[in-house]
Amino acid sequence: MNRGDFAELTAFVAITEARSFRGAALRLGVTPSALSRTLNRLEQRLGLRLLNRTTRSVSPTEAGELLYAKLRLALASLDAAIEETVALGETPVGTLRLNLPRLAAELILVPRMAGFSALYPGIRLNLVIDDELTDVVAEGFDAGIRNGERLALDMTAVRLTEPYRVAVVGSPDYFARHPQPATPHDLHNHACLNYRWAASGHTYRWRFDEPEEGVLEVEVEGPLVVNDTGIIRQAAITGMGLACLPEASVAAQISAGTLIRVLEPWCKPFPGFYLYHPGRRRTPPALRALISFLQQELVGQLL
């Protein structure tokens, strides 16, 4: 196999896995147009159409599925052999692209970035704050951080935190004007500040664990719906309504008395935050360094 043949096959595998020319191009460090030309050369040489393309999606044909199944293991084996050899003299350097929600950035990463940078000055963190379920592979990210309930099954996941609970909170001024809810059902009589996912348009259903009823989801209403948890927290502090946020994000305000917690016995635990990344290839040194650093920093901590 000559060098050009190998490049064509590598490009085909990347496009098939990313289901996107853009995502595969980001992963390989080339332009989408160059990648398209490379795939066209492979299809012309084989005399077969390997991928079906539309303006919105890319999917393998029957021939493409067969070729991918054969190539995936062979290329993975080659990658592992090369990377293990290079790893003997590797230093954690380069740009690390991470996709993570605002809460994970505020609670996990931002407080520890300076310490990480001091230990690994050769690593540059490139962060995209994103509360949606972005496909990190298709969009060219090295890894993402998400709640354990929202992880794709085909990813390698590393636990960063213990499970955490949410807290329903309101300001003293709000409770001076409204009685505290005794059960989650009372939330229908309160002004609730809620989160909406921009891509789907769905609003968050507040989840509780009642002793007799089990898991309960409450669809709340109120004067504010926004896709930013920081704005929700600030609105609650000013007395606009009740908020439902992770304990750690409002712990300081509860301690200071600017927010009052209610419904605590009904707040169910959620899986903790995980760092996840594609598992096919060996973990890059910079990502290994971040995982190790965060695990040491966060061991035993609750969010």
From TrEMBL:
PROSITE patterns, A to Z: HTH_LYSR
Annotated ranges, domain HTH lysR-type: 1-61
Family, per entry: Belongs to the LysR transcriptional regulatory family.
Source domain of life: Bacteria
Keyword entries, A-Z: DNA-binding, Transcription, Transcription regulation
An annotated Gene Ontology molecular function: DNA-binding transcription factor activity
Organism name: Caballeronia sordidicola (Burkholderia sordidicola)
This protein's name: Transcriptional regulator, LysR family
Pfam families, per the entry: HTH_1, LysR_substrate
InterPro entries with a match to the protein in the record: LysR-type_TF_proteobact-type, LysR_HTH_N, LysR_subst-bd, WH-like_DNA-bd_sf, WH_DNA-bd_sf
GO biological process: DNA-templated transcription
PANTHER family xref list: HTH-TYPE TRANSCRIPTIONAL REGULATOR, HTH-TYPE TRANSCRIPTIONAL REGULATOR PGRR
